[in-house]
Amino acid sequence: MRYAPAILLGRVARTLARWRKPGGGSAVPGLVVNTIAPGFLPRTLNSFPGGLVIVTGSAGKSTTTKMLVAALRAHGVSVFTNQSTANISQGLTSALLEEVSLTGRIAGDIAVLEMDEGHGALISPTLTPRVVVLTNVMVDQIDRFHDSDMVAAMLAKIAARATGSVVLNADDLYLSRLAEGIAPGVTIARYGVTEDVLAQNPRGLGYTLTSPARLDAADGMVLTQVSGRDATVLVDGRVHEVGLPARGTHYAVDALTALAAARSTLLDRFDAAVAVTAISAIPPVFGRGEVVSVRGTTVEFVLVQNPASMQLNVDSLDPTTEQILVAVGSDVRDPSYLWPADTSSLGRVLIASGSKAQDIALQLAYDGVVVERIEPDLGRALDDFLALPEPSTGVKTIIFSADSMRRTRAHLGLATNESDPS
Fold first, then answer.
1. Span 288-411: which CATH code?
2. Distances (CA, A) of 306 to 68, 200, 377, 393
3. Measured between alpha carbons, how far is residue 143 from residues 123, 156, 259, 335, 337 in Å?
4. DSSP H helical segments within 297-394, as ranges?
5. What DSSP letter does each residue of 372-385 carry, written as one string?
6. In the prediction, which pLDDT does 158 show?
7. Does pTM top 0.85 for this prediction?
8. Cα–Cα distance between 168 and 261 in angstroms, integer?
9. What's the CATH number for 4-280?
10. Which of 135-144, 179-188, 333-342 has the lowest mean pLDDT?
11. Which strands sit side by side in the sheet containing 221-227, from one edge to the other?
12. Per residue in 240-253, pLDDT tens?
């Protein structure tokens, strides 16, 4: 009961935060609890009978986590997870407050948590995860993580705490090197993609690739083909068809990561067919390929968070898409951050918007994309974009950064937090 006062205060803070900002403030109660009871988070996370599973890396964490949770639940496992995708320490604590009892216990067999690389490295010395899942290493969030070596070092610190297994991308050079430092007795489970899949993505998958011999170490988990929202995976020699929540090879790799993680978590209980069926049924993860109906029209949301995701999402966009709005907000602090992405395939963008409208419009123009209008006022841009006649092909498509995603959803009256039921 020693954490009961902190839990009660956290819940009061949660109520006040939601009252002040509906759909937001998810980190506030966690910040309160972590300040007055710093031992609450590690103690609770380490208390699940089936252990703790951490999913971390530069990109793909949210989608992989959601897929993994679906696969485990399909096997009858009771799973606690941070469904709001709040993946820093205060966000994780806020997620726990949703279900924890006053005695600091949560009903569930296992915890599966998406975890930010930086915050994960900070709290990892207090955690004893049974499984650590590593997605990739990219040049991401350069205002926080200055280079890939820094990201790899943080992931290595998290992986070093694994007691059962480390699941990693065999294609990623940094992760392959990281595997050499895993403690004896901890299983290393690898997954990879075929040369055919790489050939479908001549610009790469966003991370530094290993040598062509990488599949020799893929441990029977291989992505063999991707076509739109469908993929083919090879699991222990058997072919499975997987439905994806959104277009793109990166989502197929997320599905493969989730399958490899499910096998390492379930061990002998793992049934690939059951896991594939569950993964194929999940909807897009909050803003990542979501197709919604607003104001009588259908809109697709495409979230870009770094140059690699910008490139992969632009490349996977239907070339017949007629109406595109690109909105970049204050989360992109360096105006040159997204410039490594080649946006030329967009061809024509109706509106460039967000607080960095001028910056993204300049990038698009240098890539030869025709930008018909620059409108920094995102609300006005959205209203005008949605009021346009329906496109003759495809659907209205909004490509946005995280800040613009939140502002777009708020303006359109949609949930601004995945756990918000409104």
1. 3.90.190.20
2. 23, 21, 23, 28
3. 21, 21, 32, 12, 10
4. 307-316, 357-366, 378-387
5. --EE--HHHHHHHH
6. 95
7. no
8. 9
9. 3.40.1190.10
10. 135-144
11. 79-81, 110-114, 52-56, 131-134, 165-169, 187-193, 221-227, 230-235, 238-243
12. 999 999 888 999 99
Beta pairing partners, 352: 326, 374
pLDDT beyond 80 at 18: no
Going through 194-306 in order, the beta strands assigned E by DSSP cover 221-227, 230-235, 238-243, 288-294, 297-303
pLDDT at 422: 30
CA distance readout (Å), 171 to 137, 148, 268, 320, 407: 11, 15, 26, 32, 36
Cite the residue boundaries of each domain of the chain with CATH code 3.40.1190.10: 4-280
pLDDT of residue 213: 47
CA-based nearest residue to 201, from 175, 170, 225, 229: 225
Cα distance between residue 348 and residue 305, in whole Å = 21
In this structure, the number of other CB atoms found within 10 A of the CB of residue 128 comes to 14
Q: Where exactly does CATH 3.90.190.20 map onto the chain?
A: 288-411
Q: Which two tokens stand for residue 298?
A: 């259908």
pLDDT in the model for residue 420: 41
In this predicted structure, what is the pLDDT of residue 56? 94
Bridge-based pairing of strands 131-134 and 79-81 is: unpaired
Say whether 28 sits in a helix, a strand or coil. Answer: helix
Mean pLDDT of 247-268: 95
